[in-house]
């Protein structure tokens, strides 16, 4: 390109000086001189135009190259910028994911056990005292032997749970408001009926516990009130139920008994048997009526059941009612069932997978329980569908829990 410019410029100079020489030699011919000068001017003009065109083309070409290079550089810059942004975004996302994962793992480590106990027992808090019971179950706070105790406290993990040690073991049986304060207490089944744990004024304590074979722990609802029971029903010749009414600090407010005494232990046929309630003599029929009333939530049904089809049934206590959980393998889980004892067994109502109420009946024959759905709008569990379970343990294994105590 530079060589062409040089040649054109040289040609222009030659024409210019050549024109001057022609003009000097033929000065005598004015006309010829004018013609030659006109031709020289024309030639110079043409050469200058060609040179200008060449320069313009060169500038455009150079401009195009620069523009192209600029575009490539710009594109490269944009790509690099995008790549950096993407890389940065990826790094941030990666860091966030790692952070979130670490946070989730940490959160899981910190709260999984607490959530487990919360979901198992107190999914619908009524009070701060029930939260204290969860904190106790999570080993966050200790429990005292009584409300007034300042020593001898223990953690939930200190409670023996090995059923191979029948004289010293406990398990979570459910919950109920057994002191009539509107708040639920923790029921631990086990040795001599177990322990009832309460919470009040920022303190968790043992409200009462079993007192041996002559004082098995239970509770009942009678005439609109909850009572703790200590029962002596395993010895021949007597059936004794001691009713105790407690307040929220574990203080006994009232106590009375239902009793039957017989030399033959055949109470219904023994004409010499004696019956009393609140220290007043009653007859056999009245004794049986009261006893049936207080035994309405029969403990024999509580426990864990399963089947060869991997279905399972859990029954626990919920005050004067029952917790009912049913798992049908690869079909559904009913976790919020509430049951009531009837002459036939337990009638329950839960929520099906579509969010609608579903009801049924659980009947018992020995250690076998049969669940029959009687009022269902869910196509996969039509009315009349039934499942049979075998009792595996008297300790219920609650598998889901947010709504199990509604």
Q: For this entry, what is the oligomeric state of its chains? A: single chain
Which series of helices and strands comes N to C?
A: HHHEEEEEEEEEEEHEEEEEEEE
Helix count, DSSP H or I runs of 4 or more residues: 4
Distance between the termini: 93 Å
Mean pLDDT: 76
Give the strand order, joined by hyphens, for the main sheet: 12-13-14-15-16-17-18-19
CA-based gyration radius:
48 Å
Task: Please provide a written account of the structure.
Helix 1 (2-25) runs antiparallel to helix 2. The two termini are 93 Å apart. Strands 12-13-14-15-16-17-18-19 form an eight-stranded antiparallel β-barrel. The protein has a six-stranded antiparallel β-sheet with strand order 6-7-8-9-10-11, covered by helices on one side. The chain contains four helices and 19 strands. Helix content is 34%, strand content 32%. The chain is extended and about 170 Å long. The chain is of the alpha+beta class. The chain has helices spanning 2-25, 30-121, 128-137, 284-294; strands spanning 143-144, 170-176, 185-190, 195-200, 203-209, 216-222, 225-232, 238-246, 252-261, 274-277, 280-282, 303-306, 312-318, 321-328, 332-341, 346-351, 357-365, 368-375, 386-393.
Question: What attributes does this structure have?
Answer:
single chain; 406 residues; alpha+beta; 8-stranded antiparallel β-barrel; 6-stranded antiparallel beta sheet; 4 helices; 19 strands; 34% helix
How is the secondary structure organized here?
Elements: H1 2-25, H2 30-121, H3 128-137, E1 143-144, E2 170-176, E3 185-190, E4 195-200, E5 203-209, E6 216-222, E7 225-232, E8 238-246, E9 252-261, E10 274-277, E11 280-282, H4 284-294, E12 303-306, E13 312-318, E14 321-328, E15 332-341, E16 346-351, E17 357-365, E18 368-375, E19 386-393
Parallel strand pairs: 1-5, 2-13
Antiparallel strand pairs: 2-3, 3-4, 4-5, 6-7, 7-8, 8-9, 9-10, 10-11, 12-13, 12-19, 13-14, 14-15, 15-16, 16-17, 17-18, 18-19
Helix pairs in contact: 1-2, 2-3
